[in-house]
Specification:
Helices cover about 70% and strands about 0% of the residues. The protein is built from eight helices and no strands. It has helices at about 10-20, 25-35, 40-55, 60-70, 75-80, 85-100, 110-120, 125-140. The longest helix has 17 residues, at about 125-140. It is elongated.
Length: about 140
């Protein structure tokens, strides 16, 4: 079960339940996995938050949703997100725009709206979306790309 990818304790518990294990047996298995260092929600949650931010260039809302869907406790998700500062968030938004719009944000209101929808869909807050779009539009206007 753990050979393919690291799982949260919630995911492990769900998989054990689906395989027919009782709640007490699943709890005992999780205790043993913690003892062996094979289940560490805090470390895994932080690692995944960094991966989603840096490599996948997701915003905080999408990171929170993705980690929540992986059955991490809410407090661990919030703790992992506190480690991501506004400049890191802005940098990820710029990176996402660069990857999506290689030649710069399309001109006009329609182009800006398209870029905004893209960033908002990736979980970035409105201020970060607007700031990143302005920066990429200015880069495009000035011919820096």
């Amino acid at each position: 079960m753990l050979s393919r990818r690291a799982l949260s304790e919630g995911e492990i518990r769900d998989r054990l339940f689906r395989k027919g294990f009782a709640e007490t047996d699943a709890g005992s298995a999780l205790v043993r996995l913690r003892e062996l260092g094979l289940a560490d929600d805090r470390a895994l949650c932080g690692q995944l938050a960094r991966h989603y931010r840096c490599d996948r260039q997701m915003g905080p809302r999408k990171i929170a949703w993705t980690l929540g869907s992986r059955k991490f406790p809410r407090e661990l998700v919030e703790e992992a997100l506190r480690g991501i500062g506004p400049e890191e968030e802005y940098s990820a938004a710029l990176g996402a725009l660069r990857r999506k719009f290689r030649g710069g944000v399309p001109p006009g209101r329609e182009g800006a709206a398209k870029a905004y929808r893209f960033l908002a869909g990736r979980g970035f807050p409105p201020d970060t979306c607007r700031r990143a779009i302005r920066a990429r539009s200015a880069d495009f206007d000035e011919g820096e790309d």
